[in-house]
Every structure is written in C-alpha cells, then in structure tokens.
Fold this protein.
Amino acid sequence: MILITRGATISTDGSLPSQYSLKIGLTHLSDYIQKNRNIYTPKVSVNNSKMDYSNYIMLCYYRNALNYVFFNESVVVCSMFSFGIDEIWDKGVEYEALFERASFLAQLIKREEVLKQTINTKSLDYFDELIGFM
C-alpha cells in the first residue's frame, strides 16, 4: 500500500471514527460550521458588506489527517509550478533550481507539519531520495 511505503501510520480498525468521536468533533467545530437539512457547511459571515470566509481556513486544519504523508511531495510540486506551467511541461526544470526553490518554500512553511525529514539546503541527499521515490 502506498501510504505504508511513505511511512504513514495506518490504523487496523478501519479508521472510521465512532459516533461518539463524531459528536464531540462536531461540537468542537460548532463555531465554524452550520447544519442545514443534515448537511454541514462552513459558516460564512458578512462584515462591512464583505463576505468573511475565515472559517474555511480554520476547517482546512481539521480536514485531512494525511497532510504529513504528502507534505514534502507537495512542496516539490508547488516549487515546480513556480516556474510556470508552460515552462515545466515544454522544457522541464533544472534540478538545482528546483532544489533551491523547494528548500526556500519548505523553510517558509516549516512549522506547518512536524516531520522526521524535511527539504532544506543541507539535505540534498534527502531531496535526491524524495525525487527518486516520486
């Protein structure tokens, strides 16, 4: 399974939360969500005639428990797209330039996830391994 090869911890219970866990979670998020006909959506408010979507940002933190599994790969992909979509599809990118941009981006968002290994300017070996794995 691809998640196990990436080092993700997999639960043996099917990973589905219990009814009790869901109830606690929905209670915890009650300031950020609204229920309409048994469908939960983020609350959107109006401040000074402008729509406020800040609850979407807060809910993103709770949405996906697999962020850490694909974090470094997403840094590489975002770094690739910083060259421009046409550039990467037509000509590709230089490896050193990609490493430089990925290291820069990883440094900017280093506190978003706690990982054993991250991309940085001192870890070219890890970057090589990551690219080979991808």
Remarks:
- The two ends are 15 Å apart (CA to CA).
